[in-house]
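User: Before I run my own analysis I want an independent prediction to cross-check against. Here's the chain; please return only the structure tokens and, at the end, one sentence I can use as a sanity check.
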Amino acid sequence: MSERLKSKLCYFLSLTIMISILLGATYLGFMQKLDINIMKNMELVYSGENGNATLRVRNSSKAIDQRVDALIDTVKYQASPNSGLSNGDTVHIVASYDKEVAKQYKFRIKETSKDITVEGLPSQYPNLAAINTDYLEAIEYAANDYIQDHRTSIYQVEVDENEKHPHLNEKTVMYKAFMKSKESGISDRVLEIVRLNYENVTLYYMVIVPDINDSNEVVKQDVYGQKATMTNEEIENQSFKEYVARIFGDKYTIEDMANKEADASK
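Assistant: Structure tokens:
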């Protein structure tokens, strides 16, 4: 046998051995079970306040490996309890998954349940005096922004829907109050009654900023308003406090926030 032929045989033999080793390693790697912790990346989503919060658990993680993704997409969580929660409560979370997918890809699920301690829920303030000044200013700005952003739609709803550009000459805050809920599960709020002087009509309107708690956050999209349906006598006597007590007194303890200010709104 020539040296050239021997060299070729050695080359092909070596190549065959290398391919066999790679195929064997790939096969063993595929057949080997892979440990997966489906509790590791669960996301806790709380809603509400301390004492009456709800919990939703989801898995928003994505893996680079498509096989792992196929399993993660089947994972669902159940939390117990998941409502009426307070800081310090213990919640038991159980995960379920598609066992056929796990079997197909040789996954070994390490953990399917976990206990967590509820923390970080905002708490309601005991009274108006406990609320810090910066937070009250942020609430005031949010209420003012609501009027500025909705001054056209307020006029269109309450006066003339066909008026495209009503002019608001002046906004005056006539009354402000902190309303502390008497019922569990209902948020505290700050209410303003404002007088809106348009060119041809004067309206009295309420702006309400909800979810007042020690998170000290104002969610602007949650601020809302409605017409103050006061009687002519209440308007004439400026009985704003009495009006608010008549409308909201059954459900809230009302504390006055003495304030009366004019804001020229161009």
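Sanity check: The radius of gyration is 32 Å.
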